[in-house]
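tokens incoming
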């Protein structure tokens, strides 16, 4: 972007700096989104493990999070029925197998989304590095 190495336009340097800042903000936003998706994916996989444990040993107790970091041990009343939030606060009753399958599929979709976001972050980081190199070259040209 630095067109003439003999004379560096301060507006061009300012524009490069602005681009670099914008890439940094976008990378930060994508990274936060990636963390959130990873957390949800792990929660889904943990739920699948819990469902399989309940299905194998319906008499065992499970921990029920009641909020504020507190949990209680409970025994499932209906060990083959799971209440599943499918979005928009719509809750359906499903069997353990259907719920585990649904959650596994959702975890797979989230993993694919994580890969796409990771690729986007890598591309943005490469572009940001290119801009940083151009910016550094422009600063060197501005020095006497």
């Amino acid at each position: 972007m630095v067109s003439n190495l003999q004379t560096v336009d301060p507006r061009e340097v300012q524009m490069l700096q602005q681009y670099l800042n914008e890439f940094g903000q976008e990378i930060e936003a994508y990274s936060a989104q990636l963390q959130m998706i990873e957390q949800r994916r792990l929660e889904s996989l943990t739920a699948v493990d819990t469902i399989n444990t309940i299905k194998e040993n319906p008499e065992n107790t499970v921990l029920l999070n009641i909020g504020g970091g507190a949990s209680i041990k409970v025994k499932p009343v209906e060990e083959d029925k799971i209440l599943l939030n499918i979005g928009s606060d719509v809750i359906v009753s499903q069997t353990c197998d259907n719920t585990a399958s649904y959650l596994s599929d959702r975890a797979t979709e989230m993993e694919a989304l994580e890969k796409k976001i990771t690729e986007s972050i890598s591309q943005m980081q490469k572009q940001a590095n290119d801009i940083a190199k151009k910016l550094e070259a422009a600063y060197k040209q501005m020095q006497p």
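note: The CA atoms of residues 7 and 26 lie 31 Å apart.
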